[in-house]
Each structure stands twice: as structure tokens, then as C-alpha cells.
Amino acid sequence: MDRKKLVEFKNVSFQYEEEGALVLNQVSFEIYEGEWVAIIGHNGSGKSTIAKLLNGLLMPKDGEIVVDGQKVDDDTVWDIRKDVGMVFQNPDNQFVGATVQDDVAFGMENRGIPREEMRERIQRTLSAVRMQDYLITEPHRLSGGQKQRVAIASVLAIAPKVLILDEATAMLDPTGRKEIMHTVNDIQESEGLSLITITHDLQEIVQADRVIVMNKGEIWEETTPRELFLQRENLREIGLDVPFVAQLTDELMKQGVELKEAALN
Ligand code: ADP
To answer: What is the pLDDT of residues 61-104, one digit of tens each?
Structure first.
């Protein structure tokens, strides 16, 4: 397979405090161009820390992170942030503009993108998330789902190579969640983006190409949604509770054909 490697974690360890416990311990994985990888694991297993390390909000204590061939360090961090876009759980903490279009423009202004191109990207990204009719709306007037769409457009406007959604749909209802993920999936496929979703949402896990399961700061398993189903008994051991596992089973059952294949392997 000659797909391009976009993200590499090489034996990455991290702790928040000098004398504190290791929050990540020798974590290694790779993500390829155009791939959708879901990261799951119980609370505190290190998922958000991985996301923050990926765009240089945090720096590894040990090991190396490479994004599109460039090692993440203090000198490269601003370049890296052009490549790695992040959307978090609460859209209210992510707005900086007085209107929707100002908000989408903000990240581009910081990166010196010419005005004409900015206008074009605002149109394109807001259309992609179906928010093109809200250019001059004040963000606080939008619904939760609409806010998350704008947050995603703002990140897409800086044309990242990797998009990370850290529980970005957690505050939405199931319909809102489905809609956002449908939109993101479309954009991901048309723009060849790599997508990393940190999530409890089963739909997002089932649709991903691969799943990384975190446990106590280490990778417990790197697998596919189908294989994850076959190991459902083991998931309980690492604190992913019974409802979660049962729902995962149901969700995969709906995709009966794939499951039959998995059962044969
Ligand atoms: P997850 O996203 O899987 O819930 P996190 O990466 O947020 O896990 O957290 C991993 C561990 O790091 C947890 O034990 C958490 O308490 C700790 N942690 C997270 N953020 C900080 C911080 N800013 N300062 C100190 N400890 C932190």
C-alpha cells in the first residue's frame, strides 16, 4: 500500500506535571492520508491528550510526533497548526467572531490569506456545512448543531490535512450528530482529509476505517470496527461498560453483511 503517512506517533510519553504520573506511556501509531480513525477508551485514558499533542497545544515529554513529514516542536508548531484542525465539544468556547463570516475569517486572517481567497473560502466552507445562509448571523443566535457546523467550517477554511473532532458531537441530539458526521464524511472524502474522531458515539466508531482503543495511557488495541465487535467481551475488562458494548453490537448488527464476514474470519 503506498498511501501517504500523514501522522506518526513514535513512542510518545507525556505527563502534565514534572513529578506526576504518565498520562501517555510509549504510544505509537500511524494515520494515513484520507483515513478515518476513531479513538475510544474510558474517561481519563489519554484521548484528548493525544489530540492536543497532535497540534502542538502540548509537547511530548518523550518520543516524537511527525505530521506530514514534519516533526512537531517549538519551531514547527505554527506550520503544524495549519495542517491539523481541531473541533472540541463545546462550540461556545470556540467562537471569536461577532458574526458567522467573521468567525470563519479569523483563522485565515491569522495566517495571512489574501482577502479575495478568504471570501471564496468562507463561501465554500459554509456551503459545505450547509450554513451559507447565516453569513451575518451572530453565533450566539445559532442552535448547538449550527454552532458546531460553523466551528467545523472555521477549521476547514484553513485547509487542514488532518481534522480532529474531540467529542465534537457529544452535545448534539442523535439527529444533529448524524447530520454533522454525514457532512464531515462528505468533506473528508471530497477533500482527501484524514479524520480523527474521539468519541463515545457508536455511529462514528462503526463508520471509521480503524479504531484505536486507549486504556490507562496506552494503546490497548488497534483494530477495525468489525474486529472490535468480535472482542466485545474484552472491552468490558477495560471499563467500557455493558450498555456501550451492547449498543456497539446492535449498531454492527444493523450492518449484517459485514458482520457475517467478520464471523467467518
Ligand atoms: P480522555 O480524553 O481519555 O478522557 P485526557 O487525555 O483528558 O483523557 O486525560 C488523561 C489524564 O490526564 C487524566 O488522568 C486526566 O485527569 C489528566 N489530565 C488531563 N488534563 C490535565 C491537566 N491540564 N492537568 C493535569 N492533568 C490532566
So the answer is: 899 999 999 999 999 998 898 899 999 888 777 788 899 999 99
What single string gives the DSSP state of each residue in the chain? Answer: --PPEEEEEEEEEE-SSTTS--SEEEEEEEEETT-EEEEE-STTSSHHHHHHHHTTSS--SEEEEEETTEE-STTTHHHHHHHEEEE-S-GGGG--SSSHHHHHHHHHHHTT--HHHHHHHHHHHHHHTT-GGGTT--GGGS-HHHHHHHHHHHHHTT--SEEEEESTTTTS-HHHHHHHHHHHHHHHHHHT-EEEEE-S-HHHHHHSSEEEEEETTEEEEEE-HHHHHHTHHHHHHTT--HHHHHHHHHHHHTTHHHHHHHHH-
Task: Enumerate residues lining ligand 1, CB below 6 A.
Answer: 16, 23, 41, 43-49
Which of 9, 13, 23 most suits a substitution to test ligand 1, by most atoms within 8 Å of the C-beta? 23
Is this complex's ipTM strictly greater than 0.90?
Answer: yes
Atom of ligand 1 nearest to the CA of 52: 6
Which atom of ligand 1 lies closest to the CA of 46?
Answer: 6
The fold of 5-223 is Rossmann fold (3.40.50)
Looking at the chain, the domain(s) classified CATH 3.40.50.300 span 5-223
